[in-house]
Amino acid sequence: MSRPGANSDGGGARHDAFSSNSDDTAPPLSNEMTVEPRFVHPEAKEFFSNKGFLRYIPLFGEAVEGYGPRPVISIAMSYFMCKGVSHYLIRLSLFAMLTRRYGLDGTTYQRLETVVALGWSIKPLAAIASDMFAFFGYSKRWYMFAACIIGAPLSLTYGLMPAVASSGQIVAALLFFNCFTKAVVDILLEGHYSRMLRRVPGPGPALVSWIWCFIMAGSLVATVIVGPLGDAGYPQVAAFIAAGFQL
């Protein structure tokens, strides 16, 4: 009759030994407590060591931390000048140029505006060509350089065309190819920073938002320029300024 008691005592001893080995004061393990190390670009460390206050600029600080200052600034400025100021100078001055300077009616203006906009719709062709044929060993750099060199004279010619109705058809063709040159820069830059986002995806939304801020800033600058020029009767001057910004 004493064996059940002995077994009970032995079980209690074993339970006490197990309890004494467990550490009830240790914090519980959780996946939420695991923090992945945050990547900081080597150039960003040096950049922020001298200019630490720039880290707190919205979007800019996060983008530079992930990709470094040079690509973040250069891509943003390329978009500001090409797709921002230059593109919107041409786009916003088109109505005044075709209707007032060349004397075209509204129907003809709408038809020619559609032709001009088609230059942006064929930009995937530039990406295909650059992937298939490297230009001096690079698939993007020299294509963008050539696009800017070709596009600027097209803008300049657009502004220098005679102020007669027969110039409208030629202007539409010039601006079609001008828009295509800007589309080349646009899609090849997109391909470049898409690879950056694939390597370091964390600050990707900040970089894309940073780029679009500069595009919108460029459109605002173009609006401020085109308005007074159109009111003064010199919309062609916007084309000359657009050529300079595309270069």
For the report, how would you describe the main beta sheet?
Answer: none
Backbone CA Rg: 31 Å
Give the strand content: under 5%
* CATH architecture type: Up-down Bundle
Helix content: over 70%
Shape field? elongated
Regions with little confidence, pLDDT below 50 for 5+ residues: 1-8, 10-22
In whole angstroms, the N-to-C terminal distance is 103 Å
How many domains? The number is 1
Q: Structural class of the secondary structure composition?
A: mainly alpha
CATH topology heading: Growth Hormone, Chain: A
So, the CATH homologous superfamily?
MFS general substrate transporter like domains
What is the CATH first-level class name?
Mainly Alpha
Would you count the extended β strands for me? 0
Secondary-structure element series: HHHHHHHHHH
Q: Tally the helices: what do you get?
A: 10
Mean pLDDT, as a whole number?
86
Structure summarized in a few sentences:
Its main location: membrane. This protein has about 250 residues and is an all-alpha fold.
Please describe what this structure looks like.
There is one protein chain. By secondary structure, this protein is mainly α. The chain has one domain (66-246): Growth Hormone, Chain: A (Up-down Bundle). Helices cover 76% and strands 0% of the residues. It contains ten helices and no strands. Helix 5 (106-121) packs parallel to helix 8 (167-199), helix 6 crosses helix 8 (167-199) and helix 7 (141-160) packs antiparallel against helix 10 (236-246). The longest helix is centred in the middle third of the chain and has 33 residues, at 69-101.
